[in-house]
Amino acid sequence: MRIKKEIFLEMIEHCKGCFPYEACGILGGKDSIATEIYKIKNIETSSVSYFMDPVEQLKAMKDMKNKGIEMIGIFHSHPYGFAYPSNKDIELSFYDVCHVIISLNPEQENLNFEARAFKIKDGKVYEEELVIE
């Protein structure tokens, strides 16, 4: 998965801004290159799970359709966990899109982070290369 640098930085800032709760959103683009970010409200207000606001999610889907792009990724943060899919992430995954998980480290100043990308199919997790352009 490739992400434009400005989109990646916006995603990281969104995740830091939602701390201590999980942030979530959608990455849109073409040919596995994320060129648009849709920051979606986590209606669970939780530090261990997320559920995207359905109204905001629908708006994002309509905007992508109008722009002629597609959903190529879903992102969310793990404020206190690892940058690896949880059991719930695996159960609820869409295998045809990339899942970008951002782990935040609250112990360090400025919330250092780790970002990794995965495809999940039939309960199995496959790490994808994450390239920032």
TrEMBL record:
One of its GO terms (molecular function) is zinc ion binding. The keyword Zinc applies. PROSITE patterns: MPN (PS50249). Keywords: Hydrolase, Metal-binding, Metalloprotease, Protease, Proteasome, Zinc. One of its GO terms (cellular component) is proteasome complex. It holds the Pfam family Prok-JAB. Residues 1-124 form the MPN domain. The keyword Iron does not apply. GO terms for biological process: proteolysis. InterPro entries: JAB_dom_prok, JAMM/MPN+_dom, MPN, VirAsm_ModProt. This is Proteasome lid subunit RPN8/RPN11. It comes from Thermodesulfovibrio aggregans. The lineage of its organism: Bacteria, Pseudomonadati, Nitrospirota, Thermodesulfovibrionia, Thermodesulfovibrionales.
